Structures are given as C-alpha cells and as structure tokens.
Amino acid sequence: MTTGLRFAEQAVEAAVADAPGSLKALRAAGSTAFQTLGFPTTRNEDWHYTSVSAIASAQYAPAIAKPVSTLDPAALEPYTFGGTWPLMVFLNGRFAPALSTIETLPAGIRVFDMATAVAQAPDLLGKYVGTAAPADRDGFTALNAAFAGEGTLIHVAKEMVIEHPIHLLHVTDANGAGLMSHPRHVMVVERHAKASVVESYVSLADVPYFTNAVVEAFVEDGATLQVIRIQREARSAHHIGTVEARQGRDSHFLTFTFQTGGALSRSNVYTVLDGEGCGCTINGLYMLDGEQHADHQTRVEHVKENCFSREAYKGLIDDSAHGVFNGKVYVHPEAQKTDGKQTNHTLLLSDKAQIDTKPQLEIFADDVKCTHGATVGRIDETSLFYLKSRGVGKVLAKQLLMYAFAADVLETLDNPVIVEALEKLTVERFTGSSAH
What we know:
Blueprint: H1 3-17, H2 24-37, H3 53-56, E1 61-62, E2 87-91, E3 94-95, E4 109-113, H4 114-120, H5 122-128, H6 139-146, E5 151-156, E6 166-172, E7 179-181, E8 184-189, E9 194-203, E10 210-219, E11 224-232, E12 238-247, E13 252-259, E14 264-273, E15 279-288, E16 293-302, E17 308-317, E18 322-331, E19 338-348, E20 354-363, E21 368-377, H7 381-389, H8 394-410, H9 416-431
Parallel strand pairs: 1-7, 2-6, 5-8, 6-9, 7-10, 8-10, 9-11, 10-12, 11-13, 12-14, 13-15, 14-16, 15-17, 16-18, 17-19, 18-20, 19-21
Antiparallel strand pairs: 2-3, 4-5
C-alpha cells in the first residue's frame, strides 16, 4: 500500500464522520467501497493503458476541509461565455455563492448547491444521488462518494425548457495547490423537458491538484439533456471525470467532451438506454502535446428496442503525448432494432505521439444495425501539397488542416456561443494566437 493510498483512506474516514444529513449513507458506502477497491491499476482491463500511480502516491488534502476562497469576479470573465447564463462557481473545490448567479431561473427549474439540497430538498436528493453512479462502480467513484458534499442538484420540471445552458464553472487558483475536490452533480430532467448544462474546469495558476468529478444524469420519458464538459486545467493537474446517465422512453442524451488540460486526465461517459425509442449522441475532441496523457472511455448499454446511439471522438496528439480511447456498445437480447454507430479518428503529429484505440461491439440481439471503426494517421500529404502550391506556407498549411480536422466534430454542437468559444481555443492550441 502506498503512502498516498494510506493518506486517502485516513481522509475518507474523517469525511464520513463529518457527513451532512442525507449524504451520510453515500459517504459511508463510498468509504467501504474505496477500502475494498482502492485505486485501479493497469491490471484492470478498463485501465490497461492508463496508470494512476501519480494520483495514488500523492498526498492531496480534501477541499471540503478548507474554507471557501475569495476571488475578484473579473478573473472569471474569460470563462463565462459572455456572462449571461445561470452560473454556479466552485473555487478550489468549494461552492462560491458570491461568484454565482442563479437567482433568475424561472419557476420549475431548480438549481441547488449540494449543501442547500441537503437542507431544502433532502427527499429529491436522496431519491437520485448514488443511484446512477453507485459508490462501488470503481475506486474513483467510491472516493467521490466518500467525499460527497460539493456539487449541484439540478431539477427541471416536466415540459420545462431552459433557454440558456446552466454553467457549472470549476476554478482553481494558486490557493488550490495540493487540494483534491470531488464534485458530484445530480441532474434530473423530467418528462418532455429540455435542458443543457456546461461543466467547465479551468486553472488560474499552474499548480498541482486533483479533480475527481461525477455527474449523475436522469433523462425521463421524452426529455432531452445535453452535457458539455470542457476540461482545460493546468498542466500540473490530474483530472478524472465520470458521467453516468439513465434514459427513459423516447429521451435523448447528448454529451460533448473537450479535453486539452492536465498532466493525466480521464473521461468516462456511460449511459443506459432503458426506454424504447430513446437515443444518445456522445462526441468528443482531445488535443494533447508535451507529456500529457488523456484517456476516454465510453459505454452505451442498449436495454430496450428501437434505440439509437451515435458516437464520434477525434484526437490530435503531438510531441510525446499519449491518448487512449476505449468505447463499448453493448446490446441486450431484448434490444432489437438497435441502430448504433461508433467512430474514433486520431491524428498523430509527431513520431513519439501514441494512441491506443479500441472501439468494441457486444451484440446479443439478432436484428440490429451497428458499426464501429477507428483510424490513426498523419497529416494528409496531398492536402498539404495542395495548400502549399497555392502559396500557403508549410506551418500555416499544417495548422489549417489540423483545425479543419478538429472543427468537424465541434460543429456537431448546436450552441453557436459554445462552438465559437471552442473553435477559438482550438486555434489558440495550434497557433498560439486567438482567431479574429
């Protein structure tokens, strides 16, 4: 047992002893599960290409044990998409009400920080928390459960439509060095309602810290929920993010993962299509360089018939960076008429860049239409030659081709504000300057 793991177990015990109200059972379950599971190792098939020893051996202090920090609101302006959306800010792992703006939500749409949910909506929280993402899912989900206390409860009443996304902004500054945070966001979208949530994880200082986030999403009959995760944390940071969804009849769940930050990062997206006629759209873009390591895992479980799934991930990997994609579509025997498509396309921009990609299908029904595939390649020399022959310099030509490759999946998003912001970040990644 490493020093870091021993430290984590001691911290878990302290967290459980101090658990608030309806979170006590979740923390206790997380503590028990973590003591059994510990951190995953490369002997685990789902973690075969990703070692978390850098996390397991560190001694991070729990953010929930620290007081809420303060920050000049002007420091958030580059990250708030114009500042017109309902905003929940978490600073160094703690909810920061002074920086948040959720007072203008219409009736039928409720957004609580976790402490308020415990006090004002304990029955609603207790009904959902820990059910889509149970504490014994894996070591990191167990650790999140053991430290449950920060996060949000979002409840959208039936037939309500949210005009703008709800933005959950996680910010770490220099005061967050050495901290670990375990936000848990519970999102409930009732029958025929429609909502969009943006999770942003950003750093104001390049300091080491650990984010271990869990989203539990419940998309009821005829409802639509979109979750967009933007992870651009410090190069010294570690990030594990898990999204678990449960879908009802004729529902649609959409996720988009934009991952460019962190020394070590992992994104898990799991959904269960548990109602006839429902579907999911799971897309992502990862851009890595230096010594970064980013792992993307998806699992789409088709339980009922006449459901669809669409999945497209793209990656650009440079220098000595390492990417991983492992996607699984699982079709139950009862899930006839399943229509599933899964792709992963990666460009390697250097001789040392690596990608391990493994799209998978497990099908136990006989009337389905499922495809999967992966491509790994380099910049197309024909296209590069064409641009150079038209007077475009070699460096700019390569940047244009990389941007075009990335922009293709970005354009699957239906929010022009988010598309513009992510396209700008993509250009900055390749050129070092903003688009005009």
